[in-house]
Design a protein that fits this description.
Length: about 500
């Protein structure tokens, strides 16, 4: 079937914030311990961090990393993770019913960030703790010196401030599963006072308040409105979290892919709520969004995947094995994120390693790329510059929630600095090829092909495993024809495609 995509250099959405390619490292299962950190592994460095995982994180192209949770954050004492390692306490982690050894804490994690070349995004505990510990943690991290806490940091070997710029004010405080869940008024008040104190300690930081923990939470909307009523003036971002599922009542791939539109609505509805609060407050401020947890997660989500008996250290939890179908949805989701670049500035794939993750490891053994690694890495590599408004003409399919959905999902990002234009394309048709005509107006008549790749698999359930780590991986996309401003290409059924021209 035929489809077309048109962009015009003059019609852009916004500059793309590179922090859309963030990830998440939580003290959960084998994400930290026996994940990014495994002293004794043949590739481990002097801090115990695996070199192969660090290299894969660099290849993934992640720009920012959220830490130390997640649900873990709501019971975390930051003081437990600093100072001499042999004096750090072992604690019960009530988020994941595990034993936390605290052998990785603030300084070790900062060392890992420097090794990988990634910006840290820290969170403060607004579950069991509050504004006082939050301002102390910030002072410990970012104050230059001359106070008890900043000098304590210096005595721990970090003479210079850590310079952590982005801070999350708690995690999923609306969720009944959260350690010390709050009502929206309780949380909104604490978020406001915490933000106030933290900004007084360091006015250069950016702060994200917790939105709902999912679009389908019964309190979604009400939560955002009440929380922002309290803290709108004091925060820069509101968070969104979304895990893509396959409900037993409808496991079709078509419905699975329709979550792209569901999450677009989640973003647009949240913008509408934030702007209505602004209107009520007679404010011209436009709050930005941080989609700081997102991924496919529906298989390893029950029973022993969430909790194991005996308070184990680093148990195997949430170890989702991803399919080719998941990789296609991730690609489509990334196009949707790019197309909301005017309000969406940060997004963190949850998580990075072993726990619902693009990178898997075996202790003492290999590290490999899950299927979802690939669309993320391609987007993080090529999406730079301004997102152009895509005009898509494509036949579609009927969806109960959203009506007619085009088979084609697309985003286009143009980098005036390099002259490169990256085109991201998902063909959601499961059986038919798409003859696609692309018009790049105002981007120059002498375009050359820089790169063209496709990701598709005859078996949508195909996975990458330790013994077959490259079963699902990008291949060359042949047959891209360029004629002036026009490109023509044929996209395979159920395929993710990335074309870069210059
Ligand atoms: O990413 C796994 C968990 O999902 C996080 O800890 C929590 O914030 C969310 O519910």
């Amino acid at each position: 079937f035929q489809a077309s995509l048109t962009v015009d250099r003059d019609f852009d959405i916004a500059p793309l914030d590179r922090r859309l390619f963030g990830v998440f490292v939580e003290h959960l299962g084998r994400c930290v311990y026996n994940g990014i950190h495994e002293p004794g592994h043949p590739t481990a460095d002097e801090h115990g961090f695996r070199g192969d995982v660090a290299a894969l994180t660099q290849e993934l192209g992640a720009t920012i990393v959220r830490y130390p949770g997640g649900n873990f954050m709501s019971g975390y004492n930051w003081e437990d993770g600093v100072g001499p390692k042999d004096q750090r306490p072992r604690r019960l982690d009530l988020a994941w019913f595990s034993t936390e050894t605290n052998q990785v804490g603030t300084h070790e994690f900062m060392a890992w960030c420097r090794k990988v070349g990634i910006e840290p995004m820290f969170g403060v505990n607004l579950g069991t703790r509050g504004p006082d510990e939050a301002r102390h943690y910030l002072e410990y991290c970012n104050h230059p010196g001359g106070t008890a806490l900043s000098d304590l940091r210096r005595s721990h070997g970090a003479e210079e401030p850590l310079g952590v710029k982005f801070w999350c004010l708690g995690n999923e405080m609306d969720g009944p599963w959260q350690i010390c869940q709050k009502t929206p008024d309780e949380y909104g008040r604490i978020a406001k006072e915490t933000a106030k104190l933290m900004r007084w300690v360091d006015p250069t930081i950016e702060l994200a308040a917790c939105g709902s923990s999912a679009y389908d939470m019964p309190t979604y909307g009400f939560w955002e409105d009440r929380v922002l009523e309290h803290c709108f003036e004091f925060v820069d971002y509101l968070s969104l979290h979304s895990y893509f599922v396959k409900p037993p009542a409808d496991t079709s791939t078509e419905s699975f892919f329709a979550q792209i539109e569901t999450n677009a609505r989640y973003i647009e509805d949240t913008v509408a709520i934030a702007d209505s609060v602004a209107t009520r407050k007679r404010s011209s401020k436009r709050l930005m969004l941080s989609f700081d947890e997102w991924n496919v997660w529906y298989r390893a989500r029950h029973g022993e995947h969430l909790k194991q008996a005996g308070w184990p250290e680093a148990p195997r939890l949430l170890e989702e094995v991803y399919t080719a179908e998941d990789a296609l949805l991730i690609g489509g989701m990334l196009t949707m994120f790019m197309n909301h670049a005017d309000r969406l500035k940060v997004a963190c794939m949850a998580q990075l390693c072993n726990v619902i993750a693009p990178i898997m490891t075996e202790p003492g053994g290999p590290a490999w790329r899950q299927t979802i690694f690939h669309p993320f890495a391609q987007a993080a590599r090529w999406a730079r510059g301004d997102v152009l408004r895509p005009v898509v003409k494509s036949p579609g399919y009927a969806n109960a929630k959203h009506g007619e959905l085009p088979y084609l999902c697309a985003s286009v990002v143009d980098d005036a600095a390099t002259g490169q234009t990256a085109i991201f394309l998902l063909n959601r048709h499961l059986t038919d090829t798409m003859d696609l005509s692309i018009t790049l107006r105002g981007l120059g008549m002498e375009r050359q092909l820089v790169s063209a790749e496709q990701l598709q698999s005859a078996d949508l359930n195909a996975t990458n495993t330790a013994d077959a780590p490259d079963r699902v991986a990008p291949q060359a996309l042949d047959g891209v024809a360029i004629d002036g401003e026009q490109l023509r290409v044929t996209l395979k059924p159920a395929s993710w495609n990335v074309i870069v021209t210059q």
